[in-house]
Design brief:
- The protein folds into 2 domains: about 210 residues, NAD(P)-binding Rossmann-like Domain (Rossmann fold); about 40 residues, no CATH class.
- Strands 3-2-1-4-5-6-7 form a 7-stranded parallel sheet, with helices on both faces.
- The protein has about 260 residues and is α/β, with parallel strands linked by helices.
- The protein contains 8 helices and 7 strands, in the order βαβαβαβαβαβαααβ.
- Helix content is about 45%, strand content about 15%.
- It is globular, with a radius of gyration of 18 Å.
């Protein structure tokens, strides 16, 4: 199926690996021009090179910025220009005791998980509305709906991001611009894999045993496995293309059945 993305320009925050990288690859396969992002110039350049080698003829470039630093974000926005598709993907997560999280750590989470979406969306939305077309996709999480007790900072900031997307969608009334959120479930991204390996080492476990124990302890998952980044990317590609014109202001689940409610 032609997703009608050829010739469009897309930006994906936090996209040198994992879900963001996989979304970039999918957009390039569909003929979009893609700008990816990362905090480290060397890793960013390597990801650009890898995408060019994996997708023949790929039109891909990179902009370096740490979304925890507003000054770096301002520089990124000055260089970004107009885009037809914005994917707000960057995010922080960590297992933490609520009592031990400092105000400074809370601010760090807010800058990356919430304010990245605020600043990027503010930059692109007016142009999208003036051109009469555009897509903003937030890569969210079921943890923004069912806040985990051991990741309160992550869940709360992702809940705020979910609210942001819903509010922005109301600004697109009567246009061909849409704003939606993907509620992803436990996904075997590079970040999750790294965290699992660190925890396994601390607990003197084999990483594959801990991985199985995490999913085995989640009694609500219907997949009974981790989601693959490609499975999140497929939904992102749907929301990014013109064929999704009737989907706006929505939170679409790709959670593997972790959320137990009807909606």
């Amino acid at each position: 199926m032609d997703l009608q993305l050829a010739g469009t320009r897309a930006f994906i925050s936090g996209s040198t690996q994992g879900i963001g990288y996989t979304i970039a690859e999918g957009l390039l396969d569909e003929g979009a021009q893609v700008v990816i992002n990362g905090r480290d110039r060397e890793r960013l350049d390597a990801a650009v090179h890898r995408l060019r080698s994996e997708v023949p003829g790929a039109q891909v470039s990179g902009l370096v910025a740490d979304f925890a630093d507003p000054a770096q974000v301002r520089d990124l926005l000055a260089a970004l220009g107009e885009v037809d598709v914005l994917v707000n993907n960057v995010g922080l997560f960590e297992l933490q005791s609520f009592e031990e999280v400092t105000d400074e750590e809370w601010q760090h989470y807010l800058e990356v998980n919430l304010m990245s979406g605020v600043r990027l969306s503010r930059h692109v939305l007016r142009g999208m509305l003036e051109r009469g077309r555009g897509r903003i996709v937030f890569v969210g999480t079921e943890s923004g709906v069912n806040i985990p007790g051991d990741m309160v900072t992550y869940g709360v900031t992702k809940a705020a991001s979910l609210a942001l997307a819903n509010g922005l969608a109301k600004l697109t009334r009567g246009t061909a611009v849409t704003v939606n959120t993907i509620l992803g479930g436990p996904t075997w991204s590079d970040g999750v894999a790294g965290t699992v390996h660190e925890l396994a080492q601390a607990q003197a476990m084999a990483p594959e045993d801990l991985r199985a124990a995490i999913i085995g302890g989640n009694r609500t998952t219907l997949l009974e496995r981790f989601i693959e980044p490609e499975e999140i990317a497929h939904l992102a590609l749907y929301l990014a293309n013109p064929l999704s014109s009737a989907t706006n202001g929505a939170a679409l689940r790709a959670d593997g059945g972790v959320l137990t409610g009807i909606i």
